[in-house]
Design a protein that fits this description.
mainly beta
Length: 321
């Protein structure tokens, strides 16, 4: 019988032909898209084995926190790990293995590891309710924009509300880290509009403040402030200015990335764009009974105010032991 296949490389190290001169310890992107760790010096045009699995210590961008399990991208222009990629030659490198402080200059990355999130609103079943008069191309259930969802309100003179809530939920003690990425294409035209995104034990057809248990990033219509708030049924922390503002628009530069670190429900840490915000404010969910789901919620109390699209690029959670 003729040989149909044979093993030529075990997979942990693959052959790669250098397109320039590289030094041992550099990260490159292999032709199949994976990150590769160059283990020896190599000159342009020569072939060398590069490591594509394992945990590596690698240079980290300062001024940002990285949380264990978070996605790690190689910033091609800065030659350091970043929590996101932008419109450059940046590429996915793997997952962060342990928390890294803002001041840290190195971090640990498991190369090319990309386990699925435990809950992902853009992948898993979700429920959505629209309260108000639906309009083609305007208010109604979330609209699909490629891999994103869009929430909008129209000028109809009425109360309107639209949400998206994950069907799958999780216990308060799940050691969850929740990530959300959103773009406020057009903010609410008046203060009658409220946008909230984060975690909650349910939803409301009119007012996110009426939800018994929640931790949100909150945006008031006609304002650029990003606020944070929590309520566990016993202790309520009112919406507090994080001092971070957003810029409305639909481009990559308009993205806001927020993380909720629920590993200590008695003192939830909130991060915006890789930086801890309101570190001395104690956001709490320890008295919550749960379970908690992932929620994006857009509402207006009345009037002809408009909003949106507000694009939800990511709303997901990962759990830890």
């Amino acid at each position: 019988m003729a040989i149909e296949a044979k093993l030529v490389q075990a997979g942990e190290v693959i052959n790669w032909t250098a397109d320039a001169d590289y030094s041992a310890g550099e990260l490159i992107q292999t032709p199949d898209g994976r990150a590769g760790f160059v283990t020896v010096d190599v000159t342009s045009g020569n072939s060398v084995g590069v490591q594509v699995t394992g945990v590596v210590e690698v240079a980290k961008t300062t001024s940002m926190v990285l949380l264990a399990g978070g996605r790690a991208y190689w910033d091609h222009s800065a030659n350091k790990i970043h929590y996101k990629k932008v419109n450059d030659r940046d590429f996915y490198a793997g997952r962060i293995q342990s928390d890294a402080t803002s001041a840290a200059t190195v971090c640990y990355v498991a190369l090319n590891v990309d386990p699925p999130y435990d809950i992902d609103v853009l992948r898993d079943p979700a429920n959505s309710v629209a309260t108000g008069t639906a309009a083609a191309g305007g208010f109604g259930l979330p609209a699909v924009y490629g891999g994103a969802l869009g929430l909008s309100l129209t000028s109809t003179n009425e109360a309107q509300c639209v949400d998206i809530l994950s069907v799958e939920q999780f216990a308060v003690a799940s050691n969850a880290i929740v990530e959300t990425i959103f773009r406020i294409g057009v903010n609410g035209s008046t203060s009658a509009v409220d946008f909230n995104i984060g975690v909650a034990n349910g939803t409301s057809t009119s007012d996110a403040d009426a939800i018994a248990e929640s931790c949100f990033i909150h945006v008031d219509g006609n304002a650029l402030d990003l606020l944070a708030e929590s309520d566990d049924g016993t202790t309520e922390v009112a919406a507090t200015d994080t001092t971070v503002d957003f810029t409305a628009g639909s481009a990559v530069a308009n993205r806001v990335e927020a993380w909720f670190d629920l590993r200590d429900p008695a003192d939830i840490q909130v991060y915006i764009n890789g930086a801890l915000v309101l570190g001395s404010t104690v956001f709490k969910l320890d008295a919550a009974t749960g379970p908690l789901g992932l929620l994006a919620h857009l509402e207006k109390t009345s009037g002809t105010a408009t909003a949106g699209p507000i694009y939800i690029d990511a709303l997901r959670a990962r759990f830890q032991q």
